[in-house]
Amino acid sequence: MNLQVAMLLGQSGITSGAVYALLALAILLVFSVTRILLIPQGEFVSFAALTMAAMQEGRPVRLGWLLGALCLAAVAMDLIASVRARRRPAVSRPTLWLCAWAAAATALSMLLPLAALGHAVQALVTIALIVPLGPLLYRVCFQPVAAAHALVLLVISIAAHVALVGIALFIFGPEGARTEPFSDAVFTVGPALIQSQTLWVVAVSALLVGLLYVGFERHLYGKALRATAVDRLGAELVGISPDLAGRVSLAVAAFIGALSGVLIAPIITIYFDSGFIISLKGFVGALIGGLASYPLAALGALVVGQAESFATFWASAYKEVIVFTLLIPVLLWRSLARTGVEDEE
Amino acid sequence: MRRLSLAAAAIAAVGVAPLLLTPFQVTLANNIGIAALVTLGLVLLTGIAGLTSFGQAAFVGIGAYAAAYLATVVELPPALAWLGGSPWGGLALGLALALAVAVVLGAVTFRLAGHYLPLGTIAWGLAIAFLFGTADSLGGYTGLSGIPVLSLFGVRFDSGGRLLWLIWAVLLAALLVTANLLDSRQGRAIRALKGGQLMARSMGIDVVRAKMAAFLIAAAFAAIAGWLYAYTQRFVSPAPFSLGAGIEYLFMALIGGAASIWGAVVGAAVFILSKEWLQDLLPHLAGRTGNFEAVVFGLLVIVLMQHMPDGIASAVRRAARRARRPRPPSPAAGDTAAPLPMRAKPRPGEVILDARGITRRFGGLLANDDVSLSVRAGEVLAVIGPNGAGKSTLFNQLSGVDRPTAGTIVFRGQLAAGSSPRAMARHGLARTFQHVRLLPELTVLENAAIGAHLRGRKGLVAAMLRLDRREEAQLLAEARRQLARVGLAARCDDRAGSLPLGQQRLLEIARAVAADPCLLLLDEPAAGLRFEEKQELAGLIDRLRCDGMAVLLVEHDMDFVMGLADRVFVMDFGREIAHGRPADVQADPAVLEAYLGADA
Fold first, then answer.
1. B191, B206, B241: which is the final residue of a domain?
2. Where are the transmembrane segments (chain B) (predicted)?
3. CB of B123 within 8 Å of any CB in chain A?
4. Would you say residue B479 lies in a domain?
5. Phi, psi (5° rounding) for residue B571?
6. Judged by CB atoms within 8 Å, which residues 448-477 of B form the interface with A?
7. Given this model, what pLDDT does residue B315 score?
8. Sign of CA dihedral B183, B185, B187, B189
9. B550-554 and B567-572 beta bridge pairing
10. Residues B149, B17: one domain?
11. Is B143 helix (H, G, I), strand (E, B) or coil?
């Protein structure tokens, strides 16, 4: 390996590492607010990438069907819940807002001549379509059992992932897709060639990481969100709605996932089931950070990106094995650093 | 009797099945049997121990590939050559590899919180599946074919029907040893994991070891299933051992009901039959081929988790329990059992626990400030104080849950500050919990027997093969004796969750006393009890004292304490404010001020 190859691999590692870092932060955010390990985080990524690819190729965007089905389920669950509570049958306001948003985004995706409009519009419509998926998933899958054991939440999370992958096959088909890069420009810095897509990914990721940091460490609303994870009942008593916190965190997660999908789609070919592996690398990053620390999680994800990139060079067939085996020493280290046994819940 | 007739029925059903079923149905039955064996391990792991693995398919793969590799590869590496050719060699290699992987995964995750194991198994399951697909010696994505017909003890398993006998015989044996295990000291240790780790550790259970036991058994069942799979299909490829398959096994366990071992069979059968049916039906509905049954199963599991988290088998069992009349109490078979050996008892009046200068800081907060107290054999010491006085902090340090910032604790002549709850239990400390920590699904007798955990010796294998019956009878007899002591003899066979709170507290004391302790720590034992229940409890504590036990109780209820305690230790703001006989303490101005305010 010479310096040039190393620079190239490093660059590719930074690009994917930045995306994994975004996903690690989203996973951590959802976990720390709701105790859900959001396995379907990767589906936001693949859905966004495939939706954007469909737009560019002028194929119909069919994500609206999924949104519609989820909206119907949410409305039905709201009605049943209100009847069970012996109230007048009613649909909650957040559900109505979500339905309105989903309808508007779907209408845009159907009516606009998206193939002819630029990247920016395509990306915006894609993100607008993906974001309501998060809160809708929360309402339909998680909200009825939000106080249940973490194991139940994990099982629902994985079941939702399995269902979404099957739905993705139906909506997007088995073919892979890659979108056009935002720009083809290549910069030469010393011995290295730097692709502008890399700069895009790194810049957007850094911006988002900064925003998340400010939002959660400094802003009152971020603190309120975190309070619900520590003590649901306590947070409710001081006026923080855990359901709202859950929906908001899932919306942020879906937003981050959609953005990651838009960023990564020009770099790697995405299939209907690619999201899982991508998000799992985010999970590895988040686990390195102990599912608690945002900076450590981001750092962990960057390490994963580098490990993957260099593993591709040395032992390409074993790259996934190497990345996931990376988890073992990390777990060992965390395990040894701990004196007692962690109690559940 | 019920067990025997059930076993006879199962053996008869398996015996005639190949004669009655079509070849296609035999194939389905074989698939169900293999899947049920994997699922049984998951039931033990998920439903009973409260752990989860998404990676069971990887263990199946290890078992299958080990069998296929030894059976088909002509030039084996020298280290493995001696195993080649024999199916037993394949089984041994598969088990050894699966158990080794499980030990590593368990060792790195079991000390961490509950979500690390499932995430670790996801990553590991993916990595193993990739490995099967990329390793040239394992045939890459085309796999290994040409596995010969299985031949054991001269019997050739060359037809679906004969394989059915083998597979279901193995499954029934696995069900039997699992049932045996659950009905033993080691099984209770695994089941205690679900009651919160603090409870298990306070009873002297090695939590990491119990988790490891469940995980290893699950891995072993999966590896055996893989061995059966390889000789049934006579061909292995990476796909059936992917992470997706691992998730399917978990779905089977959840659909069937992760809390009952029969749920494994029900879940595997329901899953495989409905998958078969959906794969025929759905492409017609959807108008094209695809993995649509995954959508159905995904949604089904979500709905199931929301409405019936215990699965089908458990729901059926609960309904049956409601319908059935209460069983007559089981005969006290254990009464003939020889009593368990008891620890050497301290002399009356001997100092059991001596705490000196206990100080505990949480950041800037001084929760305990230079607290000193001691308890003697045959006396009741009550620690009282208003809310926030630091009683619970003190209790945690005395019971080994928390470590003092400064100060020493001497328990039976040994330094004990900061040792683990398990070590304290071994030295003769037993405790109850402020919020009752019982296993509501287990019987009263089983709950009490958990307390006697440290008084048994028999291991997992003995439990699975029923070589532990003599010791088990002794443990149950001891539990029964202690239940009689607290007045619960009539309720031995009831579910612990069906007792009213007062009796649950008595059961916790019976469980604690079953450990043959010399010091009993009671954390607010009278909280939430009615007047008669309190009197009953006071009578019980008095009897324990007369038998030479040292009792330390933390309590709010003044009347309860004053009538019972030999000495009272009053705390406020983390410090001792009074200490002495109840009557003296009651008249102490500092105590009056703490409880009633300065003007009293």
1. B241
2. 31-51, 58-76, 88-110, 122-143, 163-182, 212-230, 250-273, 285-305
3. yes
4. yes
5. -115, 150
6. none
7. 65
8. positive
9. unpaired
10. yes
11. coil
Are A166 and B291 inside 8 Å of each other by CB?
yes
> Residue B212 has what pLDDT?
92
Closest by CA position to B226, among listed B62, B84, B357, B406: B62
Highest-confidence segment of A307-311, B161-165, B173-177, B322-326: B173-177
Domain count along chain B: 2
pLDDT value at residue A194:
74
How far apart are the CA of A342 and the nearest CA of chain B, in angstroms? 5
- B339 assigned to some structural domain: no
pLDDT on residue A178:
83
Share of chain A above pLDDT 70, in %: 90
Beta bridge partners of B355: B373, B409
Q: Tell me which chain A residue has its CA closest to the CA of residue B112.
A: A342
Tell the burial category of B307 from Cβ atoms under 10 Å away from its Cβ (0-12, 13-18, 19+): exposed
Domain-embedded: residue B271: no
Say if residue B193 is in the same domain as residue B67: yes
Please say which residue of B225, B241, B257 terminates a domain. Answer: B241
Give me the pLDDT at residue A48, please: 93
Same domain, B160 and B30: yes
Q: Stretch A179-195: mean pLDDT, rounded?
A: 72
Cβ-Cβ contacts under 8 Å for B27 (sequence gap 6 or more)? B160
Contact B52/A150, CB-based, under 8 Å? no
Q: How far is CA B394 from CA A172, B359, B561, in A?
A: 61, 9, 18
Helix (H, G, I), strand (E, B) or coil at B514: coil
- The model's pLDDT over A126-184, given as tens digits with 9 standing for 90+, comes to 999 999 999 999 999 998 888 887 888 888 999 999 999 989 888 888 888 888 777 77
Based on the domain organization, do B230 and B367 belong to the same domain? Answer: no
Q: How far is B582 from chain A (nearest CA, A)?
A: 38
- Which among B110, B127, B254 has CB closest to A155? B254
Q: Which residue has the higher pLDDT, B34 or A338?
A: B34
Chain B nearest-CA residue for A277 = B126
Which of A252, A54, A254, A36 has its CA nearest to residue A145? A36
A183: distance to nearest CA of chain B, Å? 35
The answer to whether residue B443 sits within a structural domain is yes
- The predicted pLDDT at position A273 comes to 86
Range of the domain at B527: 351-596
**Binary contact (B119, A287; C-beta < 8 A):** yes
Interface of B with A in 33-52 (CB under 8 A): 46, 50, 52
Q: Which residues of A touch B116 (CB under 8 A)?
A: 287, 331, 334
- Which of A344, A322, A294, A299 lies closest to A27, judged by CA? A294
State the nearest Cα–Cα gap between B29 and chain A, in angstroms. 26
Same domain, B374 and B237: no
Position A27 pLDDT exceeds 70: yes
- Count of C-beta atoms within a 10 Å radius of residue A111: 8
The CATH number of the domain holding residue B428 is: 3.40.50.300
The complex scores an ipTM of 0.86
| Residues B216 and B356 grouped into a single domain | no
> Which of A39-53, A230-244, A272-286, B243-257 has the least mean pLDDT?
A230-244
Q: What is the mean pLDDT of residues A259-280?
A: 87
Q: 3-state DSSP call for residue B363?
A: coil
pLDDT digits (tens, 9 = 90+) for B397-439: 888 888 888 888 888 888 877 788 888 888 888 999 888 888 8
pLDDT digits (tens, 9 = 90+) for B530-553: 888 888 889 989 988 888 889 999
Residues 386-445 of B with CB under 8 A from A: 420
